[in-house]
Write a sequence for this structure.
């Protein structure tokens, strides 16, 4: 029996054995999901942090970031639809920022769909501000990305 209380969300490193659950969330969260091989190669990179949120013994969300010298990129965050609006996304982004800060990153960047107000609001809460736009960055549907940056 686990000594973690029911419903409590625990943050830990993602491992290869999480990938099936990660892909299930990835495919239902994005119109252009990452491939499993993308997660696999990032798991092998020493400059990347892949973080899992686990509740009641199952993976309910994840975040992926990497750090190159003093700049970090938050490349992916997603939470299982059943677990949204319960603070899991916030925990994941905060954990990601903590990891890259430990690697001595001075700023963290991300791209987000212009229409994804939910994610933008989460990022703003974590200290990110919009600093620019990449035109037609996304497809399916075609859409601009807002570039956001947090100073660490
Ligand atoms: C974006 C996402 C990760 C947020 O995860 P979450 O666990 O639901 O977020 P939280 O419950 O931690 O909410 C944190 C903050 O996000 C914002 N937020 C979350 N849900 C929101 C909603 N439905 N509408 C507006 N803002 C919302 C709020 O600022 C919220 O803070 P508050 O509760 O004090 O208002 C989740 O909605 C998701 O997985 N979406 C699909 C994938 C995606 O778009 N990822 C981001 C790609 S750039």
């Amino acid at each position: 029996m686990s000594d973690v209380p029911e419903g409590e969300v625990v943050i830990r490193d993602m491992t290869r054995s999480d990938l099936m659950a990660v892909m299930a969330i990835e495919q239902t969260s994005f119109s252009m999901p990452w491939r499993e091989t993308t997660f696999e190669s990032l798991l092998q990179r020493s400059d990347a942090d892949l973080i899992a949120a686990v509740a009641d013994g199952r993976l309910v969300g994840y975040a992926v970031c990497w750090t190159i010298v003093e700049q970090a990129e938050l490349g992916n965050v997603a939470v299982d639809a059943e677990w949204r609006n319960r603070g899991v996304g916030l925990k994941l982004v905060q954990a990601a920022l903590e990891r890259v800060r430990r690697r001595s990153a001075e700023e963290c960047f991300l791209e987000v769909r212009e229409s994804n107000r939910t994610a933008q609001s989460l990022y703003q809460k974590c200290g990110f501000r919009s600093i620019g736009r990449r035109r037609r960055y996304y497809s399916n549907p075609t859409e601009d990305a807002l570039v956001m940056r947090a100073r660490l």
